[in-house]
Amino acid sequence: MQIVQTVFGVFHHFELARELSERGHLRRVYSTWPWARLKREGLARDKVETFPWLHVPEYLAARAPVDLTWLRDPLGYANAVTFDRWTESQLKRSLRRGGRIDALIGISGSSLRAGALIQRAGGVFICDRGSTHQRYQEQILGDEFRRWGVNTPPSDPRDTRREEAIYAACDAITVPSTAA
User: Fold this and answer.
1) Of 134, 132, 129, whose CA–CA distance to 174 is shortest?
2) Residue 163: exposed, middle, or buried by beta-carbon count in 10 A (0-12, 13-18, 19+)?
3) Per residue of the chain (180 residues), what is the pLDDT tens digit?
4) How many Cβ atoms from other residues are within 10 Å of residue 102's Cβ?
5) How does DSSP assign 104-153, residue by residue?
6) Could you give the CA distance from residue 134 to residue 167 in angstroms, rounded to a whole number?
7) Using DSSP, how many helices (H) and how many strands (E) does the chain show?
8) How many CA atoms does the CB half-sphere of 80 hold within 13 Å?
9) What is the C-alpha separation between 131 and 174, in angstroms, rounded?
């Protein structure tokens, strides 16, 4: 079985990638972090492809000494959409060369187009939701934002629509707990 993964950054996907690689099942992991950060994750370079062009600026904007929400939210959404299109193009090239991909495991929000491509090619698309449902998460954050007087929406509505489109399109959703 040949599996690809898509992930914004690292999260727990590189632990999974190492396990899949040890068993001969990892085709490739696609990440939005640069290789300079990912090389410490213990995977061979030929198993990792990176698209850091929007995630790194988003990450830096989140750590700026001033509120750059106006920049972070559009960068975050653009990162999700562009990373998905880039990953889709990488997977198309691999499939054209005769590569087999049996499953794509994508962190939620990352693989609407790429997952559909793998499904059309006969594979399985698994959404890895590392938390509760997007709308429940927004509800909890919204309550806390109001409690603390934070006057910012908990998430970009485009992200919510994208998440829910992925939930509807994928073959399975993994979650980390029964509460999620």
Assistant:
1) 129
2) buried
3) 999 999 999 999 999 999 999 999 999 999 999 999 999 999 999 999 999 999 999 999 999 999 898 898 899 999 999 999 999 999 999 999 988 999 999 999 999 999 999 999 999 999 999 887 777 887 888 888 889 988 877 788 898 999 999 999 999 999 988 887
4) 15
5) EEEETTS-HHHHHHHHHTT-EEEEE--SS-HHHHHHHHHHHHHHTT--S-
6) 10
7) 7, 6
8) 20
9) 10
* Sheet containing strand 26-31, strands side by side: 48-50, 26-31, 3-7, 103-107, 124-128, 172-174
How many residues are listed for the chain in this entry? 180
Characterize the bridge pairing of strands 103-107 and 3-7: parallel
Q: Give the closest residue to 78 by CA, choosing from 104, 53, 60, 108.
A: 53
Helix, strand, coil tally for the chain in percent (to 5): 50, 15, 35
The residues, any chain, with a CB within 8 Å of residue 43's CB and separated by 6 or more, are 14, 17, 18, 21, 26, 29
Identify whether the C-beta of residue 6 lies closer than 8 Å to the C-beta of residue 114: yes
DSSP at 103: E
**Residue 154 token pair:** 């908990």
The pTM for the full model equals 0.92
